[in-house]
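Incident log, support desk, overnight shift.

02:14 A customer reports that sequence design results differ from what the structure should imply. Their input is reproduced verbatim below. On-call engineer (initials T.W.) acknowledged and began investigating.
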């Protein structure tokens, strides 16, 4: 009986610590223009592998990011707040999360997606849609544009 009580007490303490970390993080959300940003500790971040490309082929990309990490080049990750789970689902930035973990970084900047459903299934569908369509409107640099920039280096 003492073991059960000790285990329950430990779980309660962990839940309380996570709640405090969550509350502190969420209280520091900053609005910049029409977007909301927060610096989130790594332990609050997760990636939904039901629709993201979490596999062994990612190791090379993660290793490349670790070798060449430059926070000036890193855009904020995009994330969806899961109040019901006290964590943030990363929609764009899985490789950066893995590289940051390898580098021992305490957290990362997250651009919080707005107007997400509180219903977990509806929210997951919208997250998957954002993931699948990210970058659709982004223009890629052409070789000529890169050349012009490289001439200045």
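02:41 Re-run completed on a clean worker. Output:
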């Amino acid at each position: 009986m003492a073991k059960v009580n000790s285990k329950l007490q430990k779980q309660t303490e962990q839940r309380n610590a996570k709640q405090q970390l969550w509350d502190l993080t969420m209280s520091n959300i900053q609005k910049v223009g029409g977007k909301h940003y927060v610096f989130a500790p790594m332990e609050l971040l997760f990636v939904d592998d039901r629709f993201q490309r979490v596999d062994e082929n990612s190791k090379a990309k993660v290793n490349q990011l670790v070798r060449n990490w430059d926070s000036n080049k890193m855009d904020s990750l995009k994330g969806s707040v899961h109040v019901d789970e006290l964590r943030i689902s990363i929609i764009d930035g899985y490789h950066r999360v893995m590289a940051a973990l390898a580098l021992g970084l305490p957290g990362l900047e997250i651009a919080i997606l707005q107007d997400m459903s509180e219903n977990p299934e509806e929210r997951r569908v919208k997250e998957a849609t954002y993931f699948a369509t990210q970058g659709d409107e982004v223009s890629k640099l052409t070789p000529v544009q890169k050349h012009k920039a490289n001439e200045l280096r």
